[in-house]
Model the fold of this input.
Amino acid sequence: MSEAVYERIKKNLEILNMKNTLLILDNYLEKAIHDKTNIVEILDYLLAEEAKTKKNRAVENQIKMSGFPYRKTLEQFDFDFQPSISKEQIMELATMRFVENKENVVFLGTPGVGKTHLAVSLGMIAAQHRYSTYYINCHNLITQLNKAHYENRLQERLKNYAKYKVLIIDEIGYLPMDMQGANLFFQLIAKRYEKNTTIFTSNKAFSSWNEVFSDITIASAILDRILHHCQVISIKGESYRLKERKEMMSNTNTIVNTLFEAGS
Done:
């Protein structure tokens, strides 16, 4: 291959924005020529690598735009520590069939039991499957909707939150919500009803949601739409944060005792 042809290939790769192929071309072609690889196999390899890189880049961009507070995976979740959770049910959710079926998921439990971890993990998988995904804390959501309402942009903001294939609303019930906030929340749930999937986390049992939303009628209307097509996962167990705190204190005590013994 002449140098002019090779430079033209590299220039065209730049024009086509095939960055990965441009990166691996030199070493791969040298090996392919040495191994007498035919042209079809060369093209197959280069195009497959380029497609894989573009897919990985797209997934990474999707995850970045999803607003996750941190990155957590199901592999990092300690199912042994929370035996009340059915691992089989969680792994079934990981197939994303519930997203295709436009079902909701609600994680209930006291603070620290892993609700947000599981919600974020499923959101990460959804993003990897190229579903438009977005995470938002409930208090921040209501703040944004209230702001849009006062700026006369409510319908625009509701449309924005309604468009996501998977919307994660975290920490329902941690902070009180007034009647206007409850009404705005209901409008969003109504817009997403039977159209897209929403994942919720809450530290409040459903029987207490009338207190969360300041009105039993609104709470009932919200729950009716959420639970119509929904999987509810109630987590009964100890807090991971308390567990980590206890382990840290235990390790600290061990170190202190060791130092005292060494000094005596």
Q: What stands out?
A: The first strand starts at residue 104 and ends at 109. Residues 39-65 form the longest helix (27 residues). The CA atoms of residues 161 and 238 lie 33 Å apart.
